[in-house]
Amino acid sequence: MTTKVIKNGTVCTADRTWKADVLIEDEKIKQIGEDLSGDEYIDAEGAYVIPGGIDPHTHLEMPFMGTTAAETFETGTWAAACGGTTMLVDFCLPGADGSIKNAINEWHRKSAPQICADIGYHMAITGWNESIFNEMKDAVDMGVNSFKHFMAYKGALMIEDDEMFASFKRCAELGALPMVHAENGDLVAELQEKYFNQGITGPEGHAYSRPPELEGEAANRAITIADTAGVPLYIVHVSCEQAHEAIRRARQKGMRVYGEPLAQFLTLDEGEYFNKDWDHAARRVMSPPFRSKDHQDSLWAGLQAGSLQVVATDHAAFNTEQKRAGRDDFRIIPNGSNGLEERMPVLWTEGVETGRLTPNEFVAVTSTNVAKILNIYPKKGAIVEGADADIVVWDPKITKTISASNHHSILDYNVFESFEVTANSRYTLSRGEVIWAWGQNSQPQPGRGRFVPRPAFPSAHTALSKWKELTAPKMIERDPMNIPAGI
Ligand code: DUC
Ligand code: ZN
Ligand code: ZN
Ligand code: ZN
Description:
By secondary structure, the protein is of the alpha/beta class. Helices cover 32% and strands 20% of the residues. The chain contains 15 helices and 19 strands.
């Protein structure tokens, strides 16, 4: 079989940086060392050789809010590859029958013929009954080891606390990772109505009705529920100091709680919702919403200190036409924004170029930490012998202006429009195949990507359980005769 060597680059992993060539054989990394030779060569002179990015949070072709996200599995995985992301983890939603197994099979049916690179899934738990309890085991057996719970979207996806507790306990039994969308959905619904009734019908109403306090409250509640169930917790799209603070406090107490800021939250702020151009503002409507600069500072600090571990996009792409369904009512603007292609270049430019993150930290939060937390390390997220050759030749000298006119997403706009980025992927390799080369723009074969099963976590994953103490309570012996008179 043909071998490839990535030549003359600087290998940069989550823990070190050194000059080395990387030899690839049979889709895997065969050897890392000096002066390696092979059948073909890939030039990495002047560039970093990093593990392919993993976006832990996307919604491709997701049916949502009366429409379906416009980004397809084909365009989404291709756009991702163009920006250095070689794997994404998409959220499966149950269909009308409520079945988890059927939802996973439906996601396979949609994704398999289209994907240009590898994917995994999380499963959403949007209600609670015996068949969901049973089917969670099937999901884990099918390679889906994480379950998301929406604490918002009242009347649609929202789950109640008792249901969430039941599901978290089931996750603990199965060695699965529960995730939450943390916003107090009951209060969001009330605030939405309040502002709408005051005549605030535009996208600014979206920001007013989803204040950071409601995200912080839900994050704290989810952490308490996870701790009582004795299971780790992953909080998706952390947007604000209040949620970050809850995570920091939990981690300090020894809980395994993970937080995921988005590239958008780190760089775009709530001022976008007050733009006079309705389309501009509506295109940025997502939940939680963009916040003020203070919250951005908190998120950057969390990435630096390790209290937040990964950067995602929540890529949920709705075209302008779809957004316009909410022309007269912000409550029905489909929620979601883009970022799959932009996540890594934007994070490098705003994080590494500014000195906030080291290149190694950049690798950790875009790839390695994701692989570890989602239990696919070191198959993914690593440059070590035997790992999948998902590798990016990351060029810190490529500059470009982000624009809908040159991006690879299906979207008719880009929330990062006119951002100047100072780095991009020179070559993106997926299991050893070059699927993106800067300046060539030739899309790989749809369907070449694979579903990556993620196994259950070992039982140590459910350590530190208050719940275990609660289920083995100590009996206290009392003398029934020793009760004071009059009680
Ligand atoms: N938030 C969004 O903005 N879109 C998809 C789902 C979500 O929780
Ligand atoms: Zn409720
Ligand atoms: Zn969400
Ligand atoms: Zn999401």
